Amino acid sequence: MITLAHQEHPEFSLVRLCELLDVSRSWYYERDDQADPEDIALRDEIERIILEFSGYGYRRVTRELARRGGQVNHKRVLRIMREEALLCHIKKRFVMVTTNSRHGFPVYPNVLADVALSAPDQAWVADFTYIRLRSAFVYLACILDAYSRRCVGWHLSREMNTQMTSRALQQAVRERHPQPGLIHHSARGVQYASHEYIEQLQAIEAQISMSAVGNPYDNAKAESFFKTLKQEEMYLKEYNSFADAEQNLTTFIEKVYNEKRLHSSLGYLPPAEFEATFTPVSGS
Fold this sequence. Notes:
Layout: H1 10-21, H2 25-30, H3 37-52, H4 58-67, H5 74-83, E1 123-132, E2 137-145, E3 151-157, H6 162-176, E4 183-186, H7 190-193, H8 195-203, E5 207-210, H9 220-232, H10 242-257, H11 271-276
Parallel strand pairs: 1-4, 4-5
Antiparallel strand pairs: 1-2, 2-3
Helix pairs in contact: 4-5
């Protein structure tokens, strides 16, 4: 049996859920008449999880239920989510090409491909994407720790330029204080190949690594992060302004993605929790 968590504002949660499902509250209450009590309790807990993590599929919901003390088979979770129309179906949106590799700056080989990661801040991966506002596009540059998948630096900008990527890098350096030898991996775009950006990497004695042209799999972890960001945050909301986008992204990246969202490749732990399990090797 699932233990129902205390809700400070249950009516607000119900209103939000009905908005997400596009149903009336009368329908919500009427469907309980003939339902199994255990299914009702499980459904209610699943709905609370969906309210918090709108892009979760049934596998992550099952894992989150287990973290909250509920032992339930994933097939049962899938059945309930299908019956209650809680499975997330995201439509693919307009795709903009952001990487411009036609420039005169030096490029670097991919040195990350052959490295077996064993610790945080051993390698970072960097990339950026666009975000649609009501009347304009803005651009988000992010840096992830390749070991823990944690977003360690990010910056939202109105311009797609080197200053945008540089500020994300500066935040990551301030937060993490990487040691010399850190691998910094990115695409070959001008925003990462410019003299300004490369000088910042050289100042921290980082190894510079870049993807091959036209091969997104060379930076798959960054691609996976942006896919998650789009499906579980950006595609579910409409940002009215730059400030609105920045506020929502701050919450998602720092509070949800880094601290709460379960990551399948990390044993269904959030990145921050996964990092906390790391034990440095004595003498390293």
